[in-house]
């Protein structure tokens, strides 16, 4: 007789229920853990190599967990051996969930490395993100992965934070749309998305990763929660809880946020997993409890299904507490049932647990990476020097990022990897090596008189100078790879900056090159917005490249020479100084100097601020191009209660086909609801194609969600009144 859980004709619920009923407590708890490499945890867990060696020796592993985290290049034979053992040698034949990192490309040899998410946010192209995620899904699936820890949908607020780079921007609507697109793409290939980091992770105190977060529930629900809601609505199968505490309560023990809101309000039905080592951190870092059993009890009650990678909270003391009834086994069953259902949903019990072939990056995926880089790069300033004219015969390129391709955090960085294309490579592709001069001039943080002198002598020989400034952000901020280029990590997980100006050594090189009198183009390879007021004003052109992926150098060169029209728009605002953030555009009307409206200068001190404007230096949505685009009009018409049809007419007045991201914002003069309204909010966007000389009218429909807010009782309501509907150069008003 075939057990019901092995019967494909049964429903997933029936199969999972049947399997759960046959499991011992030990087997259940094993499903709530993750195998990892090299006994990473502070408390002994299940090491993958120990498990593999035991199996090869014909022995039973001491610990055999329900999931396996494959970091970087775990050999395929090890994964297959462990998976085959799970299916054929364990009592119930429960497959292992192979998990991995795939933020902007699977961290695996020969997999495509796309632009970092902050750059993808600047494309305003959700179909592109979905296409990228589908490639990531295919490469993940064929390499044996069935769950990836992405997308990141933290809304950016704190620019000192090193993980700014990993997210799609400062606007909740944009972040939600992009995150949902990733979920669609990766899950279309049979790989579960893990949306993270739930909740409020993007605004740590002092910009320091893991720090406390201070935010009211209204702002949290209106600004930070929506992207998670969008991803859940799209069918995301897993969510990772965030490390930090809010109002003193860590997310991992917050039943209100991790269960009542996530499952009760958002109707999330998938699995939840801890962030890495988070349960031990509840003990030694956050000092919530010195009792492992209590930590396990708190997190299980809050709704956490999987502890990764430690066996700390859900350990032997936890098991004893369940056996004696101190912890309700029904809570364990609740978690394990969700884990089993996901494995059934992905077909792991039905022949889809093994690798079939290893899909490597190819011409098509690299072309997609190049296209993504082209669309992600933002032209911030241009006095007419770009695109470079045919008369430019020789260029000189300088800086720490000229011959190094910064790929960003959570990226595969093998030693001696020459695959990623640098800016220097791209320039050589256009002009030939003999016409591209190079002098580094400075490292990331340090320069010397000899390096500066060499840069000056090199500059004398060139028609145009290109300075590639930036920072470095590698896997998890560093580890594994910072030794490759022997440079410090300036942007990444746990690499936060108190000063977000371009480093002093690079500023010195900039001033030196500017003093040569040669035209100077500044390119920025960074993982966050920087304070660039001085450099912006003195440069002839400024391009923000972010971490543009392994084809980014070629894409940037194509933009410099005019083969590609830059179309990126900022997904995050730039501050005027280190004292000017948060500087996000979507603030409430009572913020950013809206009382006195008398910003001052040294020559004429004022108020809000005494010596400066409180406004951002560069704002969300900013971005230039070579092709002139004219916005002729915007019209808004109410078609139903809280439904507005918007039409934007624009034209391509140039001689080159291009694309344009049309952004639609709303602003409510008076909310008539006691709640202070926002200055303006993004409510729709479309990336559209415009042929040379073409004039188009683009239509949008704003439904009632565009006019919603939370009332005094934290209930969703809709504000009637007059709204300003705006786009780039046009605005209109409508009464709803």
Secondary structure blueprint with pairings:
Layout lengths: L11 H11 L2 H6 L3 E2 L12 H9 L10 E3 L6 H13 L8 E4 L16 H5 L4 H17 L4 E2 L23 H16 L4 E7 L18 H8 L1 H8 L4 E4 L3 E2 L2 E2 L4 H11 L5 E3 L4 H7 L7 H11 L13 H8 L5 H17 L17 H14 L1 E5 L12 E4 L24 H9 L4 E4 L9 H11 L4 E7 L11 H4 L18 H11 L5 E6 L7 H6 L2 E4 L7 H9 L68 E12 L2 E10 L5 E11 L12 E10 L4 E8 L5 E3 L5 E3 L3 E5 L4 E5 L1
Parallel strand pairs: 1-2, 2-3, 3-4, 4-5, 5-6, 6-9, 11-12, 11-13, 13-14, 14-15
Antiparallel strand pairs: 7-8, 10-15, 16-17, 17-20, 18-19, 18-23, 21-22, 23-24
Written description of the protein model:
The protein is of the alpha/beta class and 736 residues long. The chain folds into 3 domains: 4-350, TIM Barrel (Alpha-Beta Barrel), CATH 3.20.20.300; 376-560, 3-Layer(aba) Sandwich (Rossmann fold); 629-735, Immunoglobulin-like. The chain is 29% helix and 17% strand. It is built from 21 helices and 24 strands. The strands form 6 sheets. Strands 1-2-3-4-5-6-9 form a 7-stranded parallel sheet. Strand 14 (520-525), helix 20 (533-538) and strand 15 (541-544) form a beta-alpha-beta unit. The radius of gyration is 27 Å and the shape is globular.
């Amino acid at each position: 007789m075939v057990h019901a859980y092995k019967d494909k004709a049964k429903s997933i619920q029936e199969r999972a229920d049947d399997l759960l009923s046959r499991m011992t407590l030990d087997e259940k708890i094993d499903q709530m853990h993750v195998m990892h490499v090299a006994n990473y945890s502070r408390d002994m867990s299940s090491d993958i190599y120990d498990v593999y060696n035991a199996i090869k020796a014909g022995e039973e592993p001491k610990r055999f967990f329900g999931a396996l985290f494959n970091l970087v290049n775990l050999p395929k034979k090890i994964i297959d051996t462990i998976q085959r053992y799970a299916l054929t040698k364990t009592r119930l034949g429960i497959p292992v969930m192979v998990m991995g990192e795939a933020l902007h490309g699977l961290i695996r040899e020969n997999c495509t490395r796309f632009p970092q998410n902050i750059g993808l946010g600047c494309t305003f192209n959700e179909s592109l993100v979905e296409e990228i995620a589908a490639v990531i899904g295919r490469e993940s699936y064929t390499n044996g992965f069935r769950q990836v820890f992405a997308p990141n949908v933290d809304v950016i607020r704190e620019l000192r934070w090193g993980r700014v780079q990993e997210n799609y921007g400062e606007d909740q609507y944009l972040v939600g749309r992009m995150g949902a697109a990733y979920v669609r793409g990766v899950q279309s290939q049979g790989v579960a998305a893990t949306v993270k980091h739930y909740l409020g992770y993007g605004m740590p105190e002092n910009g320091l990763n893991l720090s406390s977060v201070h935010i009211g529930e209204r702002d949290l629900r209106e600004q930070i929660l929506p992207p998670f809601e969008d991803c859940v609505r799209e069918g995301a199968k897993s969510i990772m809880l965030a490390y930090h505490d809010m109002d003193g309560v860590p997310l991992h023990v917050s039943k209100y946020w991790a269960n009542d809101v996530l499952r009760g309000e958002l109707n999330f039905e998938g699995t939840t997993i801890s962030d890495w080592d988070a349960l031990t951190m509840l003990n030694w870092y956050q000092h919530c409890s010195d009792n492992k059993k209590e930590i396990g009890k708190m997190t299980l009650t809050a709704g956490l299904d999987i502890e990764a990678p430690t066996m700390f909270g859900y350990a032997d003391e936890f098991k004893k507490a369940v056996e004696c009834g101190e912890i309700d086994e029904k809570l364990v069953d609740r978690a394990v049932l969700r884990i089993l259902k996901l494995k059934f949903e992905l077909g792991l019990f039905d022949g889809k647990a093994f690798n079939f072939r290893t899909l490597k990056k190819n011409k098509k995926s690299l072309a997609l990476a190049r296209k993504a880089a082209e669309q992600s790069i933002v032209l911030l300033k241009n006095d007419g020097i770009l695109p470079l004219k045919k008369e430019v015969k020789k260029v000189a390129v300088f800086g720490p990022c000229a011959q190094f391709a910064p790929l960003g955090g959570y990226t595969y960085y093998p030693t001696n990897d020459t695959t990623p294309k640098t800016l220097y490579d791209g320039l050589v592709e256009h002009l030939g090596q003999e016409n591209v001069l190079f002098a580094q001039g400075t490292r990331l943080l340090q320069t010397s008189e000899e390096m500066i002198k060499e840069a000056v002598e090199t500059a004398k020989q060139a028609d145009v100078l290109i300075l590639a400034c930036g920072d470095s952000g590698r896997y998890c901020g560093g580890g594994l790879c910072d030794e490759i280029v022997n440079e410090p990590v300036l942007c990444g997980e746990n690499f936060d900056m108190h000063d977000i100006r371009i480093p002093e050594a690079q500023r010195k090189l900039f001033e030196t090159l500017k003093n040569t009198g040669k035209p100077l183009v500044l390119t920025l390879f960074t993982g966050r917005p920087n304070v660039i007021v001085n450099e912006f004003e003195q440069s002839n052109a400024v391009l923000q490249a972010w971490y543009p992926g392994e084809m980014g150098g070629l894409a940037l060169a194509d933009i410099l020479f005019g083969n590609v029209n830059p179309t990126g728009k900022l997904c995050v605002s730039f501050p005027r100084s280190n004292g000017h953030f948060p500087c996000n555009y979507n603030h409430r009307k009572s913020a950013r100097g809206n009382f006195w409206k008398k910003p001052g200068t040294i020559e004429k001190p004022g108020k809000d601020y005494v010596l400066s404007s409180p406004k951002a230096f560069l704002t969300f949505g900013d971005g230039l191009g070579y092709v002139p685009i004219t916005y002729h009009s915007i019209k808004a018409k109410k078609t139903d209660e809280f439904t507005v049809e918007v039409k934007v007419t624009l034209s391509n007045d140039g001689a080159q086909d291009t694309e344009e991201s049309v952004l639609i914002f709303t602003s409510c003069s008076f909310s008539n609801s006691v709640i202070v309204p926002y200055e303006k909010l993004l409510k729709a966007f479309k990336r559209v194609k415009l042929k040379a000389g073409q004039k188009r009218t683009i239509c949008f429909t704003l439904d009632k969600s565009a006019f919603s807010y939370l009332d005094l009782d934290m209930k969703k309501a809709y504000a009637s009144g007059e709204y300003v509907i705006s786009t780039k150069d046009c605005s209109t008003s409508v009464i709803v």
